[in-house]
Design a protein that fits this description.
This protein is mainly α. The protein is built from three helices and three strands. The protein has a three-stranded antiparallel beta sheet, with no helix packed on it. Strand 1 and strand 2 form a beta hairpin. Helix 2 runs antiparallel to helix 3. The longest helix is centred in the middle third of the chain and has 39 residues. The radius of gyration is 27 Å and the shape is flat.
């Protein structure tokens, strides 16, 4: 049941529900804010404290997703006017393979460097616990900042790879070109 809950919540957010004329909001004794569209569902002890919220606009369908940005922006549509209509995404096999290879090699290099920095951070934490020196604390803080920066960069690279893969699939690029 727990595995289906996120699915149903996502679906319920995507399907626009007819807007009701009013919602009722109240805060319970623990400070939790509750909302309902039925005044009969407000507990008796909070009926006097519940505020009515009027809805002026009807529910709208979600807008189209934004256009891809970065390297995927020019990949989604084939190149026009260059006589490359039969080439997926306006680029040849060599270009697609190079893009994926470049991103994946950078990711692999960064993950290896991050692993070494994580080992260094563990050693610095061990030293800090044993000796309690201020220079160890400064080195530990610097190592933590480097690991955090690497984590952010790895996340960015993963997003870029996913965007490139999405653009490639939209452009009809064969799966073997994405290796």
């Amino acid at each position: 049941m727990k595995t289906y809950l996120p699915f149903f919540l996502t679906i319920s957010l995507l399907i626009p529900a007819p807007a009701s004329s009013a919602f009722y909001q109240w805060t319970d004794a623990k400070g939790v804010v509750h909302m309902t569209d039925d005044a009969r569902k407000v507990p008796k002890q909070y009926k006097g404290k519940a505020t009515r919220i009027e809805v002026k606009e009807p529910a709208r369908l979600p807008e189209a997703p934004p256009e891809p940005q970065g390297p995927a922006a020019d990949l989604a549509a084939p190149a026009a006017g260059r006589g490359e209509a039969s080439v997926p995404g306006g680029h040849d096999e060599k270009w697609w393979r190079a893009q994926f290879r470049e991103l994946r090699s950078e990711l692999k290099t960064l993950q290896a460097a991050r692993s070494q920095k994580e080992q260094k951070l563990v050693e610095l934490r061990r030293r800090r616990a044993i000796f309690q020196r201020s220079r160890d604390r400064a080195a530990m803080n610097e190592a933590e900042a480097q690991v955090s920066a690497d984590d952010a960069r790895i996340g960015d690279l993963l997003n870029r790879i996913a965007a490139l893969d999405l653009a490639a699939s939209k452009a009809g690029v064969p799966a073997e070109w994405r290796q």
